[in-house]
Batch of 2 targets.
Target 1
Amino acid sequence: MDAPRFRDPQLRIEDLADEPILVLCPRCGGRASVTASRLTCPACGLVREDPRPDFHAWNRPIDPFFHEPLWLRADCRGNTLWAFHERHLDLLERFVAAKLRERGPGDDPGMTLVARLPSWMTAAKNRDEVLRAITKLRATLS
Ligand SMILES: [Zn+2]
């Protein structure tokens, strides 16, 4: 079965912050969520409303507003695979699974999320292992 063709949706990592980012709750270790204005944990009731947005925190396995470790993190070939939420995981999965990857029509393809993925994640020889890590992470969402 051929893997589907993937067209770069021209998303930037910042675009994915338009829905809550899943993080480890700093109080109970449960699954909390972060937006640009607050951190909330349904497990223990923690609410924080003192975000410190940090431009340099994008593209790291922490959230860019409260700097808590992301919920969706997995070791993969000595690297850290991470995602903000399920939509991000879906995007990574579709990209890694695709055999044919097309750039979109944007002016600046070097800056999109998928164009910036590290080479270990996009290497064909790592495909199966990366997809397994994504499957494992998806299981933590149910
Ligand atoms: Zn909590």
Note: The chain is about 20% helix and 20% strand.
Target 2
Amino acid sequence: MFADGRLLGVRTTSRRSDTSEVPDHRLGEEVRATAVVLAAGAWSGSTAWLPEEARPPVRPVKGQVIELRSRNAEPVARHILASERVYLVPRNDGRLVIGATVEEMGYDTAVTAGGVHELLREAYRLLPDVAEMEWVGATAGLRPGTPNNLPLVGHGAIEGLVLATGHFRNGILLAPLAAQAIADLVASPDPKWRSSFIPSAENKGRTPEGVGR
Ligand SMILES: Cc1cc2nc3c(=O)[nH]c(=O)nc-3n(C[C@H](O)[C@H](O)[C@H](O)COP(=O)(O)OP(=O)(O)OC[C@H]3O[C@@H](n4cnc5c(N)ncnc54)[C@H](O)[C@@H]3O)c2cc1C
């Protein structure tokens, strides 16, 4: 059931998910489907419309980024620069994106002095030229993290529920692959990704080495 573009509740043939906190007048359009793909990003673990036991172990991981620009509108570097703590992405118009903090702060998306300080300090160590650049702005977002920070892609805990979440720091990079895998999983009786991708049941116990930056 959708209202105002948000999924508010799901009824299955065998059980009804918990929509008790949702007033009836908000349960707008009903959409029938054989599968429901949970792709709610950092909110995937706090989906009130799913029974608690079916909610995947996804938590929000805050990331702050800042943007500077060169005074002459020329790129300050020809390539992406990266250290263990920061990455610098030069744009052709002279802007420089500096990211990103990794913070366990729940759903907080405030830009903080500490976050900006950390990014500027680490960026300066990598490229002292940043000290001469103009300030453009800063923003913060939420990544979907899992216990081992590997994606949760596969069948969920109740029939018809498909998980496409937990992509942590690589959700943009992995979007085409994840979309193909989920489409295959939902549409095909014998999906080719079943063994090669990462099903939800195997998420626990895997190590995060080599994943993300
Ligand atoms: C600062 C920062 C820098 C990053 N840099 C990179 C990078 O360089 N490369 C990279 O690959 N990844 C990067 N990421 C990670 C990437 O942004 C995430 O992995 C990716 O956005 C996850 O995609 P998603 O679709 O699962 O979740 P999201 O992009 O968060 O989308 C989930 C959507 O679901 C919506 N939603 C939630 N609940 C409901 C509901 N009940 N009904 C309807 N809609 C709902 C939300 O409003 C949201 O729009 C970065 C993240 C941050 C914060």
Note: The chain is about 15% helix and 25% strand.
